[in-house]
Amino acid sequence: MSDRKNPHRGVLVIGLGRFGEAVARTLCEQGIDVLAVDFDPEIVQRLSPEIPNIVQADATSSRALRQIGAEQFERAVVAIATNIESSVLATLALKDDLKIPQVWTKAISKEHARILERMGTDRVIQPEHEMGVRTAQGLAQGVTDYIRIEEDFALVEMETPESFIGKPLGQSGIRNEYGITIVSVKPPGGVFRHTDANTVLERGELILIAGTPAQLDRLTDDV
């Protein structure tokens, strides 16, 4: 394992099913220090060439978690996929015994989610449910993607409306009219880049817009 000189910048990932593995791999690709944990030695052996810091341990045991240095981390994801009891016990060990400041836990059912919420988990993750809601919202709004971050904040990805084309954003009046912010733009075949007051939107570009759900609803209704 690494010495984790800055453990507060790292993430403890417990449970390496498809979801947990994806979380751990993506964090590693982002250059974030990860300590990945699974009870199954075969999973640990399979992933050890690709995830640098990976150990086999019983994450439901506070003692076992301390032995691997889990208490050094300030962020943890409990991604145990198939066993509600193990998920709850691991979350309790992290929150109550190790006092990890931020614990996100994957729920595998609505009942599981309710238990986790009552336990005070910092965030309950329901990947299948959240993706279904996100897909439905995108379809309903007629946009390519719709991401609700909080109750009063969301992001929309959509093709540049005809009425937005050709004027610098600073002169377009879009923000005054709708209260939204166009934060980035992606030309066909290109990558997203940040916008500023001088950015001129072109036909066929994708734009990423931030605002409240009500503001974004009004925008999509108009365009």
Characterization of this structure:
- The protein has 223 residues and is α/β, with parallel strands linked by helices.
- The protein has two domains: 7-125, 3-Layer(aba) Sandwich (Rossmann fold); 130-222, Alpha-Beta Plaits (2-Layer Sandwich), CATH 3.30.70.
- 37% of the residues lie in helices and 23% in strands.
- The protein is built from nine helices and eleven strands.
- Strands 3-2-1-4-5-6 form a six-stranded parallel beta sheet, with helices on both faces.
- β9 (181-186) and β10 form a beta hairpin.
- α4 (84-97) runs parallel beside α5 (110-119).
- The termini are far apart.
- Mean pLDDT is 85; it is low at 1-5.
Task: Show the helix and strand layout.
Layout: E1 11-14, H1 18-29, E2 34-38, H2 41-47, E3 54-56, H3 62-67, E4 75-78, H4 84-97, E5 102-106, H5 110-119, E6 123-125, H6 127-141, E7 145-150, E8 153-159, H7 169-172, H8 174-178, E9 181-186, E10 193-194, E11 206-211, H9 213-222
Parallel strand pairs: 1-2, 1-4, 2-3, 4-5, 5-6
Antiparallel strand pairs: 7-8, 8-11, 9-10, 9-11
Helix pairs in contact: 4-5
Q: Main attributes?
A:
223 residues, alpha/beta, Alpha-Beta Plaits, 2 domains, five-stranded antiparallel β-sheet
